[in-house]
Design brief:
Number of strands: 22
Number of helices: 19
Distance between the termini: 42 Å
Strand order of the largest sheet: 13-22-21-14-15-20-16-19
Largest sheet: 8 strands, mixed
Amino acid sequence: MQARGTVLGISGDYHDAAAALVIDGQVVAAAEEERFTRIKHDPSLPRHAIAWCLESAGVEPGGLDHVVFYEKPLTAYERLLVTHGRVGPRGFPSFARGVWSWSRSKLWVAYRLERLLGQLGHRDVRVEFAEHHQSHAASAYFPSPFDRAAVLVLDGVGEWATCTIGHGRGRDLELIEEVHFPASLGLLYSALTSFCGFDVNDGEYKLMGLAPYGEPTYERALLDHAIHLNADGSFELDHRYFDFQAGRRMYHPRLGDLLDGPALAPGAPLTQREADIARSIQTVLEQAIEGLVRRAVQLTGERSLCLAGGVALNCVATARLREVGAVDDLWVQPAAGDAGGAVGAALWHWHQTLDQDRAPAAVRSERSSVFLGPAFDDHEIIDWLEEIDVPHQTFETTDGLCEELATALDAGQTIGWFQGEMEFGPRALGHRSILADPRPGAMARTVNLSIKRREPFRPFAPAVLQDHAGEWFDLTTPLPHMTEIATVSAAHRRPGADDQRGSDDFGARLAVERSDIAACTHVDHSARVQTVDDRNERFHQLLSAFHQRTGCPVLLNTSFNRAGEPIVRTPADALRCFDDTDLDLLVLGRCILRKDGDRTLAGTSVGAP
């Protein structure tokens, strides 16, 4: 029986709040709250994202059929109470803070959401709940190209689960085995992230990027003492080395006994030791994930795998699953973290609660998985630029625009690129991107320091024309979402590049010309690749123009933001970022803006186009 078909999924009240709208089984809109409020990882209920999703899809008052929150707060609160009861008096300060926070707001999420929706004109909709890992699993399986698959969810913790194995068959998704808190690969990786001086829930990418500079010096110590990997894929942590149960910090000081000294203070200079720690925990994580995947294959009999949860964003670990033959094919939810739980909550409800069929694979297109956010058409942008009296050059055709930009990129200029629907998830995929010539190694340092304003050791992703990807990288499958790494092909590597191993100047080591696309080649010759075909139309045109001009079908592609800020949402956000950085050009639709040194957006609304 066909159910009423408008389902709003919501995540929030922890971090990466988001909203997603599913109509008749199709995800039609999704956005993170941080893009509206400009607060990175905004944890609040996603008021602005909800309003935008409903407005963009034309959902009138009375037209919203179901609202689903991505986890069950009462069960999560139970974990808080039980956990702090176990650790005793030393956990009391964080216990008291937790009880206060939960009793004030988190336990009343249904009331708060119903009141919020009422303010938006939707007064008669009752909030329902999915489990955290149900939401993640649904976000991985239902949009995937597979009709049958094993499903693996890996994160810090949901209500109790930290790892879940599921089996997807047609419209049915069954969760069949779980690992429970406090055994958690996500919290283990976050503990080592904190130990190396990075922020939890934000610095994990940095730890992954630092790993290739190091050696797995501490792998044995971690496996002998901190984590035990079992033959069946399960694992246990030795909590003498961790303190996240008490809620005071992620690790216990005695973890330093395994890692040659105390933790690095936040902001202190990185040394080779931190690089070796990063490489060691990365290696341990990869082994643990491989064991869990082999368990999932054994339980389900499936050789295709869907992945979600924050740990699934570790693209080095996911790529290794192909390398070791653990699966034949895999698909990672591009918004694998908690933001993607909004999509999953809506899809779980549609398929599992309302028992509705899944769309054919041909309908579940790659494009619908990420380009789900706000868009501004070319005429809207032009009218806005004229209204605020900002000089710009408008091109009649996209071909002319892309030829002009290919020339600028070839001359070493950097570009803020703003087109079409905003991406959903943490990756910029050619709609809200900073672009540069990938060939000179020094370009990586320029973009890191002068534009992104982040650590100089951070690597950059290459976007490559899909038809040429196999010539430039060792890969045989499209990777449109930057969810895996690949190695730069031998034909484009430069032999004898000095790795400067032992030097603590990690940025200088990254700048070594290791390949013909040195700015996008990490120190181990890896790269987090995005393949681009003509479904990503305007970005494909730009890559094609650059390829025609230079013979290189690759561009350096990174998210359009500065360190500590969300990716830009509106043209106004993009213009602010352009004015406050050393970007050379800003492209808004078919318009190019150049620096004039005097422009300010102090009086322009963030919500403006």
